[in-house]
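Example S7 (structure tokens).
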């Protein structure tokens, strides 16, 4: 289908305002593939997608916890600056692959760091158990 220059500008402005190709598609009725092609060609300054949001492991787990407690994925996503499918995807990834799958490259600890942390936590547990024995 041939689109006018006005359609192109309208779609790219919608992309800039919505931040997603799907949102621009809903706003204009023009396919996201077409809008993506226009946006990546640099046809309108500022029309490119928002820069990606990088959340920490703790932020992702907190969102998944709240999702499991009944909060809506869309509300959590808006708060975090991501899509609802990202929040739902974290829940699926967490249940399927475990916690390390949600960690970014900078968050994955080395074996030595984990061993040191484990020793620290074991010491804390021992101290707390001793305090509990004293209180009995």
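Recovered sequence:
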């Amino acid at each position: 289908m041939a689109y006018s220059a006005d359609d192109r500008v309208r779609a790219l402005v919608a992309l800039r305002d919505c931040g997603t190709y799907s949102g621009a598609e809903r706003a204009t009725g023009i396919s996201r593939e077409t809008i993506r092609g226009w946006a990546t060609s640099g046809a309108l300054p500022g029309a490119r997608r928002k820069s990606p949001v990088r959340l920490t492991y703790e932020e992702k787990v907190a969102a998944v916890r709240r999702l499991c407690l009944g909060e809506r994925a869309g509300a959590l996503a808006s708060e975090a600056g991501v899509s609802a499918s990202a929040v739902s995807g974290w829940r699926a990834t967490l249940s399927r692959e475990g916690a390390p799958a949600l960690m970014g490259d900078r968050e994955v600890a080395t074996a030595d760091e984990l061993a040191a942390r484990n020793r620290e936590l074991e010491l804390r547990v021992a101290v707390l158990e001793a305090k509990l024995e004293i209180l009995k």
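Notes on this example. The first helix runs from residue 5 to 18.
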